[in-house]
Amino acid sequence: MNPEALLGWARSLGAFTGRHLLTVAFTILLLCFLYGQGADLARGISRALREVLGERADRYAEVAIRAVRASVGSMLAVGLFDAFATACAYAIAGAPRAIVWAAITGALAAVPFLGYVAVAAMVLQLALQGAASSALLSLMLGCLVLLCGDKVVRPMVARQGIRLPFVWVLMACLGGFGVLGLAGLVIGPVVISLLREMWEQRLRELEAPS
After folding, report:
1. What is the reported pLDDT for 39?
2. In whole angstroms, what is the distance from residue 128 CA to residue 122 CA?
3. 167-179 per-position pLDDT tens digit
4. CA angle 204-205-209, nearest 5°?
5. Is the pLDDT at 75 greater than 70, yes or no?
6. What is the DSSP letter of 150?
């Protein structure tokens, strides 16, 4: 393997990781602010919505709050699941410092697809050390764990609060992330939940006269 190509790939990987870590840090600060000022913001938004939508505003606010909590909870659940599962996977593959790499992977895996950066970095380190078989096995097992976390664990946990079918939750998470980035992980499920509530409300209004 060409060392210069590996070095160039490592630099690109480092730049990509640094850029997304800044995004994660900003999001954490934003979440801290929202949790600290959440009650005041919720009251102000509820008053504004009531003036526009009337009594339905309280129901919409409840749906949105439940969707936000489910989305944040799913991010934490995926991070913990991926950290534990990749620790086992790295240990099976014989990777050094498996616990450390698993903690990094779990922290990044809270954001869809970002956990693959940690797996790629560890595989690159093993490849540079000449442990080709361990690197290949770590790559396969790590990607399998991350795939399960993003495609199974995240929608399952989010579904408990959002109360949408599995496919809709998956589409909301991935679609929101693709359009709005990290914030889309929360906004996507909220939008889908509100649209469903509005649709059901409209159907109830149409069925009421009959």
Report:
1. 63
2. 10
3. 777 777 777 777 7
4. 105
5. yes
6. I
- Whether the model pTM is above 0.85: no
- DSSP state at residue 182: G
CA 150 vs. chain centroid, Å, equals 7
150 and 112 Cβ atoms separated by less than 8 Å: yes
In this structure, are residues 164 and 200 in contact, taking their beta carbons and an 8 Å threshold?
Answer: no
> What is the rounded distance in angstroms from the CA atom of residue 3 to the CA atom of residue 148?
33
What does DSSP assign to residue 129? T
Contacts of 51 (CB under 8 A, 6+ apart): none
Phi-psi region of 131 (alpha: psi -120 to 50; beta: other; left: phi over 0): beta
pLDDT above 70 coverage of the chain, percent: 68
Number of CB atoms found within 10 A of residue 1's CB: 8
Candidates 91, 97, 122, 93; CA nearest to 17 is 122
- Assess whether pLDDT exceeds 80 at residue 84: yes
**Would you give the end-to-end CA distance of the chain in angstroms?**
73
* Domain locations along the chain: 3-202
